[in-house]
What we know:
Elements: H1 4-14, E1 21-27, E2 40-43, E3 49-53, E4 56-60, E5 65-68, E6 78-84, E7 89-94, E8 99-103, E9 106-109, E10 126-128, E11 142-146, E12 150-154, E13 158-163, E14 169-173, E15 178-179, E16 181-182, E17 184-187, E18 190-195, E19 200-205, E20 208-213, H2 216-219, E21 224-228, E22 233-238, E23 241-248, E24 251-259, E25 268-274, E26 279-284, E27 289-295, E28 298-300, E29 315-316, E30 322-323, E31 328-331, E32 334-338, E33 349-351, E34 357-361, E35 364-368, E36 377-380, E37 385-390, E38 395-403, E39 409-417, E40 425-431, E41 435-442, E42 445-450, E43 454-458, E44 464-466, E45 475-480, E46 486-490, E47 495-499, E48 502-505, E49 521-522, E50 527-532, E51 535-540, H3 541-549, E52 558-560, E53 580-581, E54 587-591, E55 594-598, E56 612-618, E57 621-624, E58 628-630, E59 637-643, E60 655-660, E61 668-669, E62 675-679, E63 684-693, E64 700-709, H4 717-745, H5 760-808, H6 814-850, E65 856-857, H7 858-875, E66 879-883, E67 889-890, H8 894-910, E68 916-924, E69 927-934, H9 941-952, H10 961-964, H11 967-977, ...
Parallel strand pairs: 10-11, 58-64, 66-68
Antiparallel strand pairs: 1-27, 2-3, 3-4, 4-5, 6-7, 7-8, 8-9, 11-12, 12-13, 13-14, 15-16, 17-18, 18-19, 19-20, 21-22, 22-23, 23-24, 25-26, 26-27, 28-55, 29-30, 30-31, 31-32, 33-34, 34-35, 35-36, 37-38, 38-39, 39-40, 41-42, 42-43, 43-44, 45-46, 46-47, 47-48, 49-50, 50-51, 51-52, 53-54, 54-55, ...
Amino acid sequence: MKRRVPLLFFLFYFFICYSQEYSIQLYNTDNGLPQNSVKDIIKDKYGFIWLTTENGIVRYDGTHFLVYKNFPFSSQRFTYFYGHPEKDSIYTAGDFEKTVLLHAKFPKVAKPLKNFTTFLTKNKSHYLLYCSNFSYAATSVNFYINFKKGRYYLKKNELIYTDFKSKAEENLQIKSIYNNVPRVFAINEVLFHIDPQSKKISKIEKGKITGSYNVPLLTDTRSRILWSQVNNQVFIVNRNTIYTCNYDNGELKISRLLHLNQARDENFVSAYYDKSYKKFYLGSSIGGLQIISLTDFATVTRPPSKPESNFYSLLPFSSSSVITPFGEIYDRKGFIGNKKFEDANSFFLDYDYFGNIITQKANDVMIYQKASFYKDTVSIKNFSLKDFFFDQNRYYALFSKLKIGKFPEFKTILTVYKDKSFKYPQKNIYINKEPTKLIKFDEDHILVGTAKALYKVSLKTNKIYNLTGKDELFIRNIIRSKDGVFWIMTLGKGFYMLKNDHLIKMPYDVNNNISSSHTILEDSKGFFWIPTNNGLYKVPETQLLQYAQNRKSKVSYYRFSKDSGFNTNEFNGGSNICGIRLENGEFVLPSLNGLVFFDPLKVTSYYPENIYIERALIDSKEQYFKENLYLKQESNRVDIFIDVPYYSNPDNLVIEAKLSGMPNAKWEPIGKEGKFSISNLGYGNHTFVVKMLVSDKGKFIYKKINIIIPPYFYQTLWFKLFVFSVILLMLYFLVRWRINFLERKNHKLEEIVSSRTKSLSDTVEKLEITKNKLHKEIEQQKKLIGTISHDITTPVKFIAMTAKEVLDKDDFNEQRIKKILNSVYKSSDQLYNFTITLKEYADIYSHYRSDKTELYSLYKLIEEKKILFNEIAEKNNTAIINKVDQSLLIWISKNILSAIIHNLVDNSVKYTQNGSITVESNTEGENIILLITDTGIGMDEKKIEYYTTLQDNIENEKLLLQKYGMGLHLVLQLLQMIEGKIVFTKNRLQGTSFKLILKNKKND
């Protein structure tokens, strides 16, 4: 008895004990592991679990095991993890000092860390110790442990501490520091030594003992310590019970984690507890990996002496317990009492207004009296009660009555009583269908469920309204939520929301398990808990209401299954009450194997946090990538893996993906294999988008990668442009050849068309320009001919009239004849001058159309005109002076410019006496300026104004040839042909200046 006192004292002060339900998953070489010896377990910063085995390294994401065992080592045996997970640098050692680095979710061969070498460089006799499980058990082997600020060397009876910074050493003599197995462990950079003789735990800091603890569980010889320095976790295994050991506020605290049935403690060599998912990982030396899921659900069954634990209807009995139709009372710990309700029907149980318990026994109703603690009963014979409720005034009951006949059928009777008893029926309403459920809709209406339809019954008029129409629905339950919405549960067809007397069907879950839903329990946070024939589902009511408004909105169901702590996935319905809420806030659900107790506010819904797309299987060859996946067109099949570290029910892993840019691209669910398959994808840049549900509120995170498939050379844009260019070039040469052929063939008929036309577009442009010029010239010629015709008419008419006058008169005297002849002479001379001028214009225009532009000297052209008019000028005592730049060469049509200069110099010579005529030139950009100045009588202002106006609008102005002659009119016409201008200026003293502005360009 005295030996138990310290243990009881220890339990009182240091245990934080609680009963924890759990489920176990076992993995070995049969279902994923490459070997059955799991040496060490760790979780990296990305959320993946890593295992070391004697046949490779394994990455686990909650669903799949990814094995790496093709390292360039002589052996694929790996030992333990060390390093820094938070820095994404985890190391593990293989045989013969070979080291592998786990970084960025991928293992690769690396050099070992300086402070974590397997063997010390200076002292080959020390092995690195960083966990309780190691392979070197010989007594001659020494160890060392690394901390951030220093290192401990462990010998048989001595401990030496070396400070990294100061290099100072502390020697500590400790008896039996280890005997084959070092009796030490580390928590939070503090070393603890277990002394089995003194039954004490020594705390050692910087080589000095700074504390001592009496923890019998740690010093018990039957206890095995599983600790990992890199995980900073310590576990104690004793008599199949696992405890956690934590160091907090200077105290060692032991907590009971779980109890394993029929487990062999000596086989456990590694352990890791994932608090975020409440999962405990146990590695065995021979039995593989056990994943123990701690659950928030408690499932209780009937005592062994009772029949099977198949529960249906139940009622709250106390704040934390329930009672069944058999009178058995249960809480979350199990069976606690029995009221012994004999031969009761499992499908009906309820309280009446006075707190009595109503059960159905065969065709009789049994009412167990509360006053006698449910020992005394009152029975009602031939009373087949299916459902029942009451309000402040009366009872409402739903009966099923068997109709005897050739074809027996159930008939529903809805009875309303006058008071709160079953003695005085007020009215009966009949429905020819099997009854299942009733509930009060409002003060005047009752909802009645049957095996065929849902009815709304009016209490005032007794009318029955079928709310399901032509569809048949087996109504299992009717629930009214806190906000007053009615929800209709059916058998095999899901559940519905009743709105405005219309049923709105709610969507199914992925596995269609919601089709057989039994009831709805609503928690204080607005979540519905729905038990079905295959699991328990949780869904926010807001999502269901949104779906009722918009059928495209998403509804996310969260599924709890056997892995959550149930004995079976099949919950039971069909009873009047198939799920209740206790006063302590717990929900209780009947199942095919036990009652399930749980607090909905304490049940954790696990959602993934990260998603990684970095692996692909291309024609059976694995390839790693980052943001871009490069493929070849000849790849027949590509499997893109979506890696998600998620350690809960995979049914709740909602991942969808789509390949953007494809016709009819839509979101496709990713199955449990976690891969998206692509085949025969065309070349180009494609975007692969994945979305994943990460919360109860329907929030998704997105991840995308680019899939780049280079085209073949003949599919490239450059090749297509090249081919297109070649085709265009061929067409060009074909058209060019055809044009040249036609030009050569029609050369004699089309002399104007140049045989040197370079392209069809240039030819068209030139023809258009020529067309415009010809149009203008023809218009001018028409105008000129019209004017000449008008001016010639007068002299011709005068000659004709004079001749007629001579012929009509017989008498002629000399004076009269002389006068007549003089008039005829003047008219004929005027007509002759018009004719000569018109001929000159025609000759110049003809030569302009046929001649081609040539380069010539403007100075020499002026010299030619000077020689022509020099004799006439000398008679008038006038000098012609040529000051034109002798080096100036021009492209302007020589015939036209010669005619223009001839006309202007001729006019100057005619009207200049005893003076000079000066011709000068200069250049302004591309223009040639030619200035002809005389000292003659000069032009009057009216002529200057007339010619200036005529030049600006020669196409529309009227030509006054008879008044001003043909000379300057011809000059203006010729200047228009060479796109030139003339400026008339009357000199200040005497004479006139003609300023010619000429464009010096080659006319091809």
